[in-house]
């Protein structure tokens, strides 16, 4: 989106492993990405936790596929994620999405109040994040996939879909 707000980073994320990583600690630490048009991959390679470099380096990645499938891959996780302190930075793994609405403030009419609505979050059980493991998210079908009225009204989706003839959706 075009709005930057501190709380949006807490509510909008795709995080294979969010923690207080310090990629500048080692010359061997990198954060790299690849986009081939079909999949976008970000890899954190040999990154260390800030102030806890003695724990060892972490290597993991997130792959976002054009189909909507998301895969988190974990190559090197030197300590159980539950042992990572959240005192300096949140420790999370999963997906979250939110949006922000700007409403006029009743107290000051010329100002706007920002309200952030988090509408969905998927949190991973961090005890399952180990060396050489992976997690795959597969998108569920939605009403927007229907291309005709007949397909829409005969759908077995549980969303109570209905067809809009004006929008042809």
UniProtKB/TrEMBL annotation:
CC terms in the record's Gene Ontology section: membrane
Localization in the cell: Membrane
Amino-acid biosynthesis keyword on record: no
Keywords for this protein: Membrane, Signal, Transmembrane, Transmembrane helix
InterPro entries in UniProt: PLXDC
Membrane topology of this protein: Single-pass type I membrane protein
Main location: membrane
PANTHER family noted in UniProt: PLEXIN DOMAIN-CONTAINING PROTEIN 1, TUMOR ENDOTHELIAL MARKER 7 RELATED
Family: Belongs to the plexin family.
Protein name stated in the entry: PLDX1 protein
Species of origin: Penelope pileata
């Amino acid at each position: 989106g075009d709005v930057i707000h501190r709380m949006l980073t807490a509510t909008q994320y795709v995080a294979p492993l969010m923690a207080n990583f310090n990629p500048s600690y080692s010359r061997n630490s990198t954060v790299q990405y690849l986009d081939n048009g079909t999949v976008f991959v970000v890899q954190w390679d040999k990154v260390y936790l800030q102030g806890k470099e003695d724990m060892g380096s972490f290597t993991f990645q997130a792959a976002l596929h054009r189909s909507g499938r998301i895969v988190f891959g974990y190559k090197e996780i030197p300590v159980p994620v539950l042992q990572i302190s959240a005192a300096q930075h949140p420790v999370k793994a999963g997906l979250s999405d939110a949006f922000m609405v700007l409403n006029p403030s009743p107290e000051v009419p010329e100002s706007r109040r920002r309200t952030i609505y988090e509408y969905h979050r998927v949190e991973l059980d961090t005890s399952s994040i180990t060396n050489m493991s992976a997690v795959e998210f597969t998108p569920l079908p939605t009403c927007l996939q229907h291309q005709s009225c007949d397909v829409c009204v005969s759908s077995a989706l549980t969303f109570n879909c209905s067809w809009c003839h004006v929008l042809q959706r």
